[in-house]
Amino acid sequence: MEVWFQDGNVEAIRRPPIPDEFVAMAIPISTDEDGRGNQVGILLLSIEGTGSVRSALTGTYTIYLKTSRSSFITTMNVNGNGLIIGGGGGIGRACVLAFARYGAAAVVVADVNLDAAVQVCEDSRTHATHPHFKAEPHAVDVTSRSSVDDLTAYATRLLGRIDYCVNAAGLGAETQREVADADPDEFARLLQTNVTGAFLVMKSISAIMKTQDARLNDTNSPARGTTRGSIVVIGSASSFSSGPGLMQYTTSKFGVLGLAKNSALDNAQYGIRVNCICPSWVNTPMVKQAVDNMPGLGEKINSTVPLGRIATPEEVADAVIFMSSPLSSYVTGSGFIMDGGTTLTSHT
Ligand SMILES: NC(=O)c1ccc[n+]([C@@H]2O[C@H](COP(=O)([O-])OP(=O)(O)OC[C@H]3O[C@@H](n4cnc5c(N)ncnc54)[C@H](O)[C@@H]3O)[C@@H](O)[C@H]2O)c1
Asked: In the annotation, is 253 catalytic?
């Protein structure tokens, strides 16, 4: 039997006894190395047609691939299940649409704004490339432990396994005041949502992912290790540098990065990766609101970003997809700065 593989899928199969009028469909169940550099696979072969040829040939076969496949992953491979929190708007919404586009099987979209989550689920269906894509909305308030635990339990019941969790729920600065005039209520609000909220999500999803089966990151390359899941939280360039009058936001985003790093360390032994994506200005409703509240901010963004423009939410989503995918199988605990060069002069 000769078998051709292309990107992990069986492209064609020939075996002399199969007549032309019979259509053969082969599904690779698993592949491995045989120790001599050959790829060996278990193949589920189904032959459409009638009569004794079909019954003689349909079955499970051990196959040797004609060509040895390289151990390079060639796509993002995010074809599992995702839970996206804060998915009703801005960066979270872009992440949901990206997961749909890159082939995720299912997403749960959670937000304090349920109507927005419902709408994003609807939008995602038009972007989906997985043939059985499923998108379900759910309400959550990340500042409430019971609400977060209800969400993760719901997503686990619905999906069976959560491969990717993205937490993009967060609040931006409402005012720009130097520390002596800072508003304690706003400070408490930002810490409650951005830090305590991120902590409650991290705690709940880590407890669930720990119980999931470990799976190979890449069946063609066992050296890339196993995974029980990937967690991404959105930090900020403000996780690394301060801005005038933005003490409340800076403090909260340093907290998010610290939370991600310590969680990455605690979770590494289980094969759960945790990363923090740190953008500067991104064109979302949060920034539009900040630009409205803070005179001169719009001009400042364009003039201070070395690349000369604000980021799109889709650019941030692409980084989130990379951190969720096996392409980043050796990356954990990173604070991944994507800021058009904004902080180049303020960190090493
Ligand atoms: N937009 C930027 O320029 C920028 C830059 C760096 C970092 N970030 C960070 O990215 C994240 C997303 O920001 P965005 O710009 O997409 O904001 P956004 O306001 O456009 O979207 C945030 C989403 O989170 C939801 N949310 C807010 N509070 C919540 C809560 N308690 N529980 C559940 N959901 C809640 C909102 O309803 C909204 O859908 C935030 O953590 C933000 O700090 C944004």
From this structure: yes
